[in-house]
Prior knowledge:
Elements: E1 3-5, H1 11-25, E2 33-40, E3 45-52, E4 55-57, E5 60-66, H2 70-77, E6 80-87, E7 92-102, H3 105-114, H4 117-125, H5 135-147, E8 159-173, E9 181-188, E10 191-197
Parallel strand pairs: 1-4
Antiparallel strand pairs: 2-3, 2-6, 4-5, 5-8, 6-7, 7-8, 8-9, 9-10
Helix pairs in contact: 4-5
Amino acid sequence: MIDIKKIDSSEPYLLFNDFYNKALEAQQKVVEAIAISSYDKSSNEVESRHVNLKYIVGEEWVFFTNYNSPKAKQFKMHDQITALFFWNSVNVQIRIKAKIKKSNKTLSDEHYFARSDKKNALAHSSNQSSIIESYEAVVDNYEKTLKEKNILKFRPNYWGGFTFKPYYFEFWEGNTYRLNKRETYTKTKNCWKKNFLQP
């Protein structure tokens, strides 16, 4: 689930919250999964992956990762991302465009220390996306780290949150006859402009 705290009162945020609650009621699995696409300037490629969105605080959306990971390096190169939810239980897709930055250290610390040692051990033991000889070596590194209780008492400085603030939403509602409803919101000068798109 997503921890929604004092969500912004503008129309696209309230519409998102309404769809989110409907997905929860429909028992959507992994409702917090969001696909994040980023641009790598060095390879001139776009890459996507799913992450778990943890918080929405006002206008800010937050997830956590390794700051040395490829996606973190891509965010630094190019701070514009696209994010995507698809909730099949309610046949809704939500596209978001946003600017992304590192979360403040206080938020990263609070989230880290609210987690279990079993989760935090991976933050310490994994050099995310680096090549390793086998999956068994991944497990071995993890189990060794889990036993090192002193290590787990601090958040590694290479692990923490990323915060993004949307400037575009598209709410897509599927229709049996493909008369899909597409409702968009674009932010300019702190105001949201609403439009509808043809299917």
